[in-house]
């Protein structure tokens, strides 16, 4: 998961030491690592694409252009476009507050930011059911006003927002802590305003970390299944996101179609990883 | 001092933009909700919240009904579908999923909906013919080709070394029918000796390898993942697996005794009132009883109520000695309390290792 921060790679010292290990240990360790990678990561990925194209390219394209599939893709994009910018803003605000200021209850705040990581997504979904369902705290009121939150798009956005909340903040807090607030203080003493300081001093310092957090947040928002499943209501063509649509197709014996949509998500994941690596490379250059 | 001031300014700026953004989001969504109900005067949408194995049935039926309704009234109707374990779906309707009609696996789940927020009138089961059940089904076994474990009846399921797949009766309607069918068999075998019945049913559940939450999940476990020697399944689900996934891989075994499963349907009064869809929702359910509707049910391996349609499909539906929930278990309320509520017989006999 997140939480680690891209920094320099292993130093030369350790490289020298491993070279002194007996050959068979090195071979064994490398074989173990490669075998593990192959079985747990590469093979499943290949399997997805094989299954997706099992019945030919026409079935593949038919299943990703099916109206229900398109609406699932659209809904997923809407959710991402709403949650990622919001969480980027909240994340920067939270990281700024935590790292540049001292106040009472700071560690409590950090714990609360981490909460969505600790809570199972199912619970995250149920929390919103408790609040907004017909029996929930605001249920009667919402019913009378004819505002639908749960089993509709707002509920899905809220649940995703909750689950992906910590990604940006968690990425930025260690980075900003390491950077300290000396540069901001300098900027302020030289007469720049708060907003100007943020734009010209803080933002350039954290931009790669921020982007990294945004990418992780994006990946999770696209892929979230548990929390969304609880609040979705599973109405075809209306409240199914891509992961939910994949499950439905699978349960309807449309295995190829389900893996076709799954392959789309895998491509998205691979693009995300490439971007992530690019950013890691960039930060290591800057660092 | 100064640092604090500027920082707080910045915080205000951020929270303000966040609030504006959040405001946009919610306005947009509630706005679209309003246009749904007001702008679309002519075309109408209804939501059918159903249980797992009816996907194929309603996919076909919905098309047919939409054409019929258009001819009859000139109005476009779109039927939206939601499927899942019966209990879970009932729960979602209680929690606010705005179903116009519910078509669930058993009366007990609709009773549960009716008991909440006046969603459905309490006498719902008398509002349509045949206990509001336009089609029925029963419970059969699906085994692997050539029946390698020689499974013929319920007692073969209790034998050691047989691996059984069935969903969890706590969450799945189909699973409750499975459980009661096994109970009915044991009841006859042991002349109502409850200790022996419990031991027998307990032995079957000791053989259960995977306890999924819904009927479709169990079918996938058995068929696609290849786990288990026998799947206790809805008759329609068993037929569907046979046709979708290979006649040369599975066989259906009909036990000596089974249960008449009645998956009922009902209009959700409170929701249709609010949405103004009473008429079309009612017509939708009534259309299930027409010859056309019955034919579609039979084609999707549900036993039709209509005698003539049933005759037409007679070789598809073998005669089975069927017990009923009302005569043999005293109705769903009682069956639910004795067997499936916390502390019921299922809790007694099922102890996961």
From TrEMBL, chain A:
Membrane topology: Multi-pass membrane protein
Domain ABC transmembrane type-1, chain residue ranges per copy: 73-276
Gene Ontology CC entries for this record: plasma membrane
Localization of this protein: Cell inner membrane
MF annotations from Gene Ontology: ABC-type sulfate transporter activity
Major location category of this protein: membrane
Membrane spanning stretches: 23-50, 70-96, 108-137, 149-169, 255-275
Record has Cell inner membrane as a keyword: yes
Pfam families with a match to the protein in the record: BPD_transp_1
Superkingdom of the organism of origin: Bacteria
Keyword annotations of the record: Cell inner membrane, Cell membrane, Membrane, Sulfate transport, Transmembrane, Transmembrane helix, Transport
Record keyword NAD present: no
Role, per record: Part of the ABC transporter complex CysAWTP (TC 3.A.1.6.1) involved in sulfate/thiosulfate import. Probably responsible for the translocation of the substrate across the membrane.
Summary of subunit composition and partner proteins: The complex is composed of two ATP-binding proteins (CysA), two transmembrane proteins (CysT and CysW) and a solute-binding protein (CysP).
PANTHER family xref list: SULFATE TRANSPORT SYSTEM PERMEASE PROTEIN, SULFATE TRANSPORT SYSTEM PERMEASE PROTEIN CYSW
Name assigned to this protein: Sulfate transport system permease protein CysW
TrEMBL record, chain B:
UniProt signal peptide: 1-18
Signal in keyword set: yes
Superkingdom classification of source: Bacteria
Recorded GO CC terms: periplasmic space
Places the protein is found: Periplasm
Biological process (GO), any one: sulfate transmembrane transport
Entry keyword annotation includes Signal: yes
Biological function: This protein specifically binds sulfate and is involved in its transmembrane transport.
Family per similarity comment: Belongs to the prokaryotic sulfate-binding protein family.
Protein name, UniProt field: Sulfate-binding protein
Organism: Domibacillus aminovorans
């Amino acid at each position: 998961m997140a939480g680690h921060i891209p920094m320099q790679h292993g130093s030369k010292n350790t490289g020298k030491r491993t070279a002194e290990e007996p050959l068979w240990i090195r071979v064994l360790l490398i074989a173990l690592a490669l075998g593990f990678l192959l079985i747990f990561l590469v093979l499943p990925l290949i399997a997805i694409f094989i299954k997706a194209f099992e019945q030919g390219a026409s079935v593949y394209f038919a299943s990703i252009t099916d109206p229900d599939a398109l609406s699932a893709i659209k809904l997923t994009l809407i959710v991402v476009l709403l949650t990622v910018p919001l969480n980027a803003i909240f994340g920067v605000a939270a990281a700024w507050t935590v790292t540049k200021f001292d106040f009472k209850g700071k560690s409590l705040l950090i714990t609360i930011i981490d909460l969505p990581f600790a809570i199972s997504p199912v619970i995250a979904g149920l929390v919103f059911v408790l609040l907004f369902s017909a029996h929930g705290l605001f249920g009667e009121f919402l019913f009378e006003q004819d505002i639908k939150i749960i089993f509709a798009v707002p509920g899905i956005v809220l649940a995703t927002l909750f689950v992906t909340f910590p990604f940006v903040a968690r990425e930025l807090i260690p980075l900003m802590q390491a950077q300290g607030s000396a540069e901001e203080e300098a900027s302020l003493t030289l007469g720049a305003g708060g907003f100007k300081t943020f734009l010209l001093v803080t933002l350039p310092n954290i931009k790669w970390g921020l982007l990294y957090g945004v990418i992780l947040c994006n990946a999770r928002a696209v892929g979230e299944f548990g929390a969304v499943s609880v609040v979705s209501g599973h109405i075809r063509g209306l409240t199914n996101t891509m992961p939910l649509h994949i499950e439905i197709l699978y349960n309807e014996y449309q295995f190829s179609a389900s893996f076709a949509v799954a392959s789309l998500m895998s491509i998205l994941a691979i693009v995300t990883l490439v971007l992530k690596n690019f950013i890691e490379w960039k930060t290591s250059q800057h660092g | 001092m100064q640092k604090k001031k500027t920082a707080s300014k910045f915080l205000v700026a951020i929270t303000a933009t966040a609030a504006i953004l959040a405001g946009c989001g919610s306005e947009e969504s509630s706005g679209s909700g309003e246009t749904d109900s007001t702008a679309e005067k002519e075309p109408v949408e209804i939501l059918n919240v159903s249980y797992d194995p009816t996907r194929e049935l309603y996919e076909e039926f919905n098309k047919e009904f939409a054409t019929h309704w258009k001819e009859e009234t000139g109005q476009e109707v779109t039927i939206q579908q939601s499927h899942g374990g019966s209990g879970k779906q009932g729960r979602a309707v209680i929690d606010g999923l705005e179903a116009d009609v519910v078509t669930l696996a058993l009366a007990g789940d609709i009773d549960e909906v009716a008991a909440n927020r006046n969603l459905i009138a309490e006498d719902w089961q008398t509002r349509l013919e045949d206990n509001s059940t336009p089609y029925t089904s029963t419970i059969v076994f699906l085994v692997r080709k050539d029946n390698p474990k020689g499974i013929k009846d319920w007692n073969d399921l209790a034998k050691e070394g047989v691996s059984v797949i069935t969903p969890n009766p706590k969450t799945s309607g189909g699973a409750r029918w499975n459980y009661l069918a096994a109970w009915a068999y044991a009841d006859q075998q042991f002349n109502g000796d409850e200790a022996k019945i419990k031991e027998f049913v307990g032995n079957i559940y000791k053989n259960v390898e995977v306890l999924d939450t819904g009927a479709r999940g169990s079918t996938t476990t058995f068929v696609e993942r290849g786990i288990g020697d026998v799947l206790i399944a809805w008759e329609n689900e068993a037929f569907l697996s046979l046709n979708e996934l290979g006649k040369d891989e599975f066989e259906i075994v009909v036990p000596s005794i089974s249960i008449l499963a009645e998956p009922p349907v009902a209009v959700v009064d409170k929701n249709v009132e609010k949405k103004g869809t009473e008429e079309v929702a009612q017509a939708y359910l009534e259309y299930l009883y027409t010859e056309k509707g019955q034919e579609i049910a039979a084609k999707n391996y549900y036993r039709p109520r209509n005698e003539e349609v049933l005759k037409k499909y007679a070789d598809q539906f073998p005669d089975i000695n069927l017990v009923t929930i009302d005569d043999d278990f005293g109705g769903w309320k009682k069956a639910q309390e004795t067997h499936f509520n916390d502390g019921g017989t299922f809790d007694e006999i099922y102890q996961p290792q």
